[in-house]
Design brief:
The protein has 218 residues and is mostly helical. The protein has a domain at 77-213: Tetracycline Repressor, domain 2. The protein has 9 helices and no strands. It has helices at residues 6-15, 25-48, 55-61, 76-101, 105-122, 124-133, 139-163, 169-184, 197-213. The relative contact order is 0.10.
Length: 218
């Protein structure tokens, strides 16, 4: 009698992962509330500093009570940690995606500049919070943010090494850090500028690209 393969096939089929279930209305509402909390936390922390904002402030700004914040985060420190670690992940993931698309080093760097400029202009509050309140992160979150920041800088550094092969790694990294500092200084000055936002973006991109492109003789 021949062996019937169907039970084996059935067993194999049973081991295949089930397709992910679509999010429920409740899970979407919870995710939306969490996103609102992080947006309002960035705004409040930027305005008043981490230590000047309470859980009740976060809840009120997000349309919920203070105790309801604990349904999403175990405490205020966790809100700050989520805000800065998630942004750091987004920057690294976005920069890596730009690099994976490929192209000439000059072209990739120009795309990285545009990506970072859009981030800086669209997330001014987050940049202020990171500049001022990094010391308030837990040791674990601070280590995660610094690791992701280093990895993001290395994305830029690797392209600079290709564009300027005569520069050593330390010089390329210093150039990348300097240009990122130029771009990220925008939140401290943009609100005082009368320049049209689109023109401001073009000018900032042009300055950053020029700083990355010009050969530097030591």
């Amino acid at each position: 009698m021949e062996h019937d393969p169907r039970p084996e096939a059935t067993q194999e089929a049973a081991t295949v992962d089930a397709p992910p279930q679509p999010p429920t209305g409740r899970s979407r509402a919870k995710a939306s509330r969490r996103s609102t909390l992080l947006t309002e936390a960035a705004r409040l922390f930027a305005q008043h500093g981490y230590h000047g904002v309470s859980i009740e402030d976060l809840g009120s700004a997000s349309g919920i009570s203070g105790p309801a914040v604990y349904r999403h985060f175990p405490g205020k420190a966790a809100v700050l940690g989520a805000l800065l670690t998630e942004v750091s992940h987004d920057l690294y993931d976005g920069g890596s995606a730009v690099a994976r698309v490929g192209g000439t080093p000059a072209g990739v760097l120009a795309e990285l500049v545009g990506f970072q400029v859009d981030f800086a202009l669209g997330h001014r509050d987050v940049i202020r919070v990171q500049d001022r309140d990094m010391a308030s992160l837990s040791a674990e979150d601070a280590a995660t943010v610094r690791r992701l920041q280093r990895a993001y800088i290395e994305v830029w550094t690797s392209q600079l090494r290709l564009l300027h092969p005569d520069e050593d790694e330390a010089a390329a990294r210093f150039r990348a850090q300097s240009v990122l500092g130029l771009i990220n200084s925008t939140p401290h000055s943009a609100h005082r500028s009368a320049v049209d936002p689109a023109a401001r973006r073009r000018r900032l991109v042009a300055m950053a690209v020029a700083a990355l492109s010009i050969p530097v003789r030591s």
